[in-house]
Design goal:
With about 120 residues, this protein is mostly beta strands. The protein contains no helices and 11 strands. Strands 2, 4, 5, 6, 9, 10 and 11 form a 7-stranded mixed β-sheet that branches. The chain is globular and about 40 Å long.
């Protein structure tokens, strides 16, 4: 079992920045990919970015050039630096982890609100 705990959400003005963090607890030795998804009201959950244990990254098209995902393997933590945020990016942001054995785990989510 893997537990994921997110932090760093909040209210930010358009054009502002936030940094999300997600710490993994439990069977962390098996974690291969960690990432962030988001879900806005009435919309499907979508990939924001993910990163492998070898630090290969993948981004959703809408965030390329503005968001940066990084990972501290020693601390079992993944970060998402979000710059130039837009109101339409208001959503609940979820941390996700995949293990070598194929298990998938979700955090409870952290709310990000982009508004004046």
């Amino acid at each position: 079992q893997v537990q994921l705990v997110e932090s760093g959400g909040g209210l930010v003005q358009p054009g502002g920045s936030l940094r999300l963090s997600c710490g993994a607890l439990g069977r962390i030795i098996d974690i291969s990919v960690m990432g962030w998804y988001r879900q806005a009201p009435g919309k499907q959950r979508e990939l924001v970015a993910d990163i492998t244990s070898g630090e290969s990254t993948n981004y959703g098209d809408s965030v390329k050039g503005r968001f940066t995902i990084s990972r501290d393997n020693a601390q079992h933590t993944v970060y998402l630096q979000m710059n130039s945020l837009k109101p339409e990016e208001t959503a609940v942001y979820y941390c996700h982890a995949v293990t070598d054995s194929g298990g998938g785990y979700w955090g409870r989510g952290t709310q990000v609100t982009v508004s004046l």
